[in-house]
Amino acid sequence: MSSRLVSRRTVLRGSAVAAVAGAVGPTRVFATEAAAAPALALSSEPVLHALRRLTYGPYPGLVGAVQASGVRAWLEVQMQPARIADANVDSILKYQFPHMLLTSAQIRARYKGKGWQAMQQLKGATVVRAVWSQRHLQEVMHGFWSDHFYTHPSDGVALWGKFDEDKRLRANAFTSFGRLLHLSASSPAMLSFLNNDESSEDDINENYGRELLELHTVGLAGGYTEADVRGAALAMTGWTYDKETLAFKYNPKLHYNGEVKVLGWKHPNIDGTAGGVETGRSLLDYLASHPATARHISTKLLRRLVADAPPASLVASTTAIFLASKGSVPALLRHIVASREFAASTGHKVRRPFDMVTASVRATGGRYRASAGQKGAEELLWRMAEMGHAPFDWIDPDGYPDTAEAWLSSVGVLGRWNTSLAIAGRWFKGVEMKDAKTLAGGKDRPAKAGPLVDSLTMALTGQGFARAHRNAIIEYLDASESTIIDDNTLSWRGPRVIALILASPYMQVR
Amino acid sequence: MNSPTVTEEFLLDQRPDAMSRRGLLKRSGGVALAVAAGSMVSPTAAAAAPASDRFVQIFLRGGMDALNAVAPAGDPAYAAARPGIAVPMGALLPLDSTFGLHPSLGALAPLWQAGQLAFVHSVGNPQGDRSHFEAQDAVECGTPVSSAVRTGWLARHLTARGQTGAALRAVGIGETQNMTLAGQRNAVTLRSLNNFRVQVGDKDRVAYERAIRLMHSGFSHQIAGSGTATLSALGEVRGLLAPEFATSPQAAYPDSNFGKALRNLAQCAKGPVGLEAGTVDIGGWDHHTGLGNHTDGQLARKLTDLAAGLAAFRTDLGDLWATTTVVVVSEFGRRVEENGDGGVDHGHGGLMMVLGGGVRGGKVYGGWRGLATSVLDRGDLPVLTDWRNVYAEIVASRLGNGNALGAVFPGLKPSFLGLVNPR
Fold it and tell me: Fewer CB atoms inside 10 Å of the end CB: C or N, chain A?
């Protein structure tokens, strides 16, 4: 797309929204709604829309359950994941990925020299949870925090520490931003990945201090200077880990003593022997409640859940909620999901490759084959890696990008189409998808091409397609509306039809 | 313009379907494009842009050892610093009074003799550090310090030249998009031309792609444009598999990933697809251990592959070589002194190679100052030439974009070495 044009429009739109704060009608939230050409006919049915944003993909059983309970009630339950039974995932993890239930230190003891194998299992377990967990929103938020406080498990403690860090990010997904920031800042994986473990009074390494400001808290718009970066790095000296236990450890010998300043914060920081932890915590508390942080985190969360370029009105109101609630994750989610901007955002996100795979497997009713061990996860991982989006493969500290622009290169789009063919073609040994006949209703499936296509699009995407797109599938079947499609033809051509539906914008866009 | 070939832009505009392909791409922007298309992408705008070479960047990931590739054999400090791995004077192919070429780069000797290969020594990022990650980022983004503005310099160059509507204007061969092209709309990344296809049989392909095309039509959304652009690229790539663009029988590409990548890139260059920029990555240059000597070892093997690939590429391109410029770059050079494991650790100043029909070759550029401790930067070759100046000269003199240097390399005060002849 022409990013130049769209971004200019967004800027204009944004200023208009700011000028008439609150007075913008519901149909004027997004600039594209003024388009001359019709929008994609993606269903804006509230439950479907919410599930496309708050889970790794809707499927018929889930849609039905949420339609019964209502989105708001479902959201409240999802934000208390401990109350949700997750027997299917528990069982897959217990029998296929038992070591992923161990601590970092235990995993290192077992896999020393084979870190790659251990990490492969963490990636696999991540995919399993995303596809099969009933704690849908916890997985989505885990993915969000995992990208935000990103560590690349290249080797050493950045790799071994990742297992503990990952568990903590998941367990704290619904706490507060401040708590997550403290968790990340004391995570050995992070301290190793961004070299805080090498930073000392004599030889300052600014890597963590810089990313703490630029990526984790106030952001580039936060108005900090190189002196602030240095101040943050000085304040955090001594935050490291115990090499044996892989637990956080404060090392006073590395700590800088003397006044430190970052933006509007300063600390005498005189007694490094005991006080270095206190200095760092004080800085983290300051940053966690900074207005620039509130805006930065709100914008990112909205980019994940609402639109690549979230409306200025919603950024402003979410930032206010962040500040008022001290960064409470449930408060932010309640506000966003209840907003009119959220309701009006249908189609404003493109699924990233990871989500595209999970959503397709969920839509086709994929079942994990216990007999295949870890293979089921590996097959899905391989597809994600082909499209450049397997968990934790991103090298940079900024986490995977979350705008459509980053994922719609030709090779990226082609990867989606070929992945759709693989899933629809049931090429996997470890995951069993439903076939076309089952998806279309089994014995009672419609016989005629038109209704048959409708039942398949409904089963896979929860909606019928626009006439032209529906006709494209019927035409692909060499059929017309009322041509009878017998079982033989369906078993032969069904996989390609399912692939077309999965590859269609109705599945790729959310 | 004295080159024997017609420029890509001109070719494109002569094609009967050029307008319709443009139309497809235009639609991709959705919403606003109908209004803006006329002013933004006028059919004559591309033809009016100054002529440009094809530009190919080859990135050696890991930090190529400049000192063994183009060795300052005339300096006794060289052999002294590297008792186990220095290339002996007698084994080097002499380049000038100071430097000799690693024998594994011997396949490049004819290009050197023809004056179409130049080296720039002690080149790099003056503000660069010694981490792979940051250094590669800086080289590719064209900014001395890695910043949050993450577009590649080559993408900015193409953007500044304006759209051409070509489906294969910028092609990266590899697994993921090269950062140098980050931000370039519709830059195509592909592993190989043969694998760039929808995985359905030939019999079903037309019907299947037609259905996909219809599904991406009739509405305005970013994905509609990306889908149709991908279908166009698929069509272009199929066209490139025609016999007329096949590899020249004289071109002896090595049977390596690099050889295959250049073979594919040559096919793109020969076909009427509007190729302006290509990128290829070769990994495996981080030789902390076992760098080897002049006959065997990791470096010799990598250099052999590099030289054989480049030589075959030149042969394969034939007349197109006159309007092709190739740059070989790495994120940094390596330490002067050999380490305890028969390798060399991360360094600072490195080596760039510039090859092509318009290169003033047969010369080592860069202002060599020797290996005295006082010259070195913490034990490494100093950076005497800002790497952006190598690119900037090519952008100005060979890629027809001298007016846009400020946008391509923000903050750079250009200073040219005289590496290439102006087109």
Answer: C
